[in-house]
């Protein structure tokens, strides 16, 4: 197998910050960030945050894109906090008076709590898509 074949990859390393940010951006906006693995391929590779665009250069071999959702165990990853849920939480508390400032501050706290919980929800192995089909690799999370 030569360095153009992504099946050479045995493990990918990704920063926890990149993975969590990519997942979060996909939840909050219309962008669909990925974790990108650039050729040439080797046994151990680094996956970095990337937002695909039509201007991306194509090549042979093509980079491998990993959906950030694939990096998390759905049974361990809590739902991403929605602003409406934060507002309902504040309004249902008889000891609190709703304000925009309170809502914003509380929602920032909920997102930070989610980000911390997400760093505990990574899978150990992930499937990557290659021109030859799916290929399972080990996931190494940096900074978690």
How would you describe this structure to a colleague?
The structure is a single chain. The protein is an alpha/beta fold and 144 residues long. Helices cover 29% and strands 24% of the residues. It is built from three helices and seven strands. It has a four-stranded mixed β-sheet. The chain has a three-stranded antiparallel β-sheet with strand order 4-2-5, with helices on one face. Strand 6 and strand 7 form a beta hairpin. Helix 2 crosses helix 3. The chain is elongated and about 65 Å long. The model has no long low-confidence stretch (mean pLDDT 93).
TL;DR?
The protein has helices spanning 16-28, 83-92, 100-118; strands at 11-15, 34-37, 44-46, 48-50, 64-66, 125-130, 133-142. The chain is of the alpha/beta class and 144 residues long.
Can you give keywords for this protein?
144 residues; 7 strands; elongated; alpha/beta
Instruction: Give the topology string: H per helix, E per strand.
Output: EHEEEEHHEE
- What's the pLDDT, averaged over the residues? 93
The outline comes out as: elongated
Helix content: 25-40%
Q: What is the strand content? A: 15-25%
Please tell me how large the radius of gyration is. Answer: 19 Å
Biggest sheet: strands side by side, in what order? 3-1-7-6
Q: Report the count of strand segments.
A: 7
**Helix and strand composition category:** alpha/beta
